[in-house]
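so my prof wants the structure for this chain in the tokens format not the other one, which i didnt know existed until like an hour ago. anyway here's the sequence
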Amino acid sequence: MIDIHSHILPGVDDGARTLGQALTMLRMAADDGVTVQALTPHINAMYKNRPEDLRAAFDRFVADASGIGVELRLAAEIAVSPEIPGMIAGERMPWVGAWEGRPAFLLEFPATLIPAGSLRLVGRLVASGVTPIVVHPERNRQFQADPTLLADYVKEGCLAQITSGSIAGEYGRTPFQTAIRMTEEGWVHFLATDCHDETHRPPGMKAGLRQAEEILGKEGARALVMANPSRLLGLATKEAP
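here's what i got, hopefully its the right format
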């Protein structure tokens, strides 16, 4: 499986604090069946990570994690902000990959709301040739109150990623029900862990994959963790273990 969203890179945000914790998390991901792991630290008002600093931290971690046998990729989780177009224009956007020839990035909304003007911002980004990937919308209260709002973003040209723990029922009833609805409606393109630690928000894709299989069937569910992430990262599609 391929996990496109995690906070394993140590010491850069609210994810892994130490190298030891990061290596433990990566081993957990490998044991769960992840063969390619994207490391996607926050870039937001609290964590003002610079791409060059993330690259240096990533290069160190790749060397430290070389014996685990998981291919690592570097990107970031970008908080919705009017600054995003400037990041792109200044070539400072940590892209997660590309979709249909268009660069793609992980876009995060606040937990409680969708900021005014977000759909217009997304529309401008899509018109400029960029594909935003809306991450964990099932955990946003405004999307929870009206899941059909995600359809507006998908129609505008976004992709969407839900959290494996949400659809597995690990984060409570409302995220679970919202994730189920979004998946049933066909608005979801990726399943990822968004893991932050070993215990409260740990690596783990299989439980979410099993639940997705109940909705989409085996082939449809595996597309969320294999075919679509492979396409995004420019990898040859291969069977999941």
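also thought this was worth mentioning. Residues 143 and 149 are 6 Å apart (CA to CA).
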